[in-house]
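Case study B.
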Amino acid sequence: MSAFTPIEPPRVLLVRYGELALKGGNRNEFELALMRNIRAACADVAPVRVEREHGRLFVFADQRLESVARRLTQVFGISSVSPAWEAPSEPDAICAVARGVLDDALAAQPAGARPAFRVLSRRVDKRFALTSMQLDLYVAEHILRVDDPLRVELEHPELVLGIEVRETTSYVFARRIAGPGGLPVGTLGRVLCLISGGIDSPVAAWMAMKRGALCSFVTFHSHPFISDDAKDKVVELVRVLSRWQPRSRLFVAPFAEAQVAIKAAATNGSEDSYRTVLYRRMMQRVASVIAQAEDAKALVTGECMGQVASQTLENLTCIGAAASLPVLRPLIAFDKQETVDSAQRIGTFALSAVQTPDCCTLFMPRRAVTRGRLEVCEQIEARLDLPALVADCVARAERIDVA
Ligand code: ATP
Ligand code: MG
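Model:
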């Protein structure tokens, strides 16, 4: 019996990106964006070379391939990743490599397992001597041994030996690591996310990124009423989110003056119950100006229908009406638990869960309006010099580049 020699570690990752194929004329642009994002994401992991061929990307790395693969699970647009071994595109050469790949995969199985197994090949080069089905059979017949701990089962395999046959080189693999799906960040243009230190807005930003938006951020900070801990927390949240896009820009907009002015203006009768809605309307105005300077096409908030008293449809309408760009609300129909689950997966939950005061809890009315009316908002705001307040807030916003 020949001594068992483990196969050399793989040097290439086969990257699949399902949804891009749907994008017709934009496909080239999408592929180029994905390649750029992959290079940027891997920059601090290992040097990589990215190539594309027939609806696949190949990421070559001579070192730390496993870490590179893990990193790619945070690159939107990727549907799955397989560490792969190369073989000359010739049936017996493929078999020789395939046996090593199978040994590697069997070694990773739990003791005593007998996984359902099949070979599944795909030919890109139709001139290859065998059809895909013939190659499946050929490889299975030539590499399987009677004592292999597996059972051949074509219908519901747990272990699939994949083969992609290309013109000169074929790729053999047994693992498929799920990617995050979505579209490459940047392909939908830029948006400006209103981010607080809460649980919701970081998840909303992440969802916008997932659908291809490059996110800039703005947070409203009421120095000196609120300590800088609140601002530092947002910087840290943006840092976590920046694992999912190449780099992020955060604007910290000073909000105390606007809040003081709103508090002073909303004094008649029950007007003070409008304060929270009025703060939010001010945020939308300032964000709209910053967004336009950033060339962002929409605002993104973590608002959700009916989650809290301030997020009734009436109040959301009043708030949205102050924006001069479309307001996207990715969490609109999420239950809180769904948002919490997402925040945990993204890695923002632990940070968001740390309690820090928020500017919206400042000068809170005794009772908050639940069915805000736009005329009332406008009546109160008519007592303010809105353009000056907005311009001042924009002018004094601090820009922080977060990597
Ligand atoms: P979050 O967890 O994101 O704070 P929330 O459910 O607590 O959301 P609110 O606090 O009512 O809701 O805020 C609604 C949305 O308004 C937030 O998701 C965010 O997009 C925006 N927002 C609220 N406060 C701020 C702030 N200080 N800076 C920037 N945006 C804010
Ligand atoms: Mg909040």
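The mean pLDDT is 93. The remaining cases will be described in the next quarterly update.
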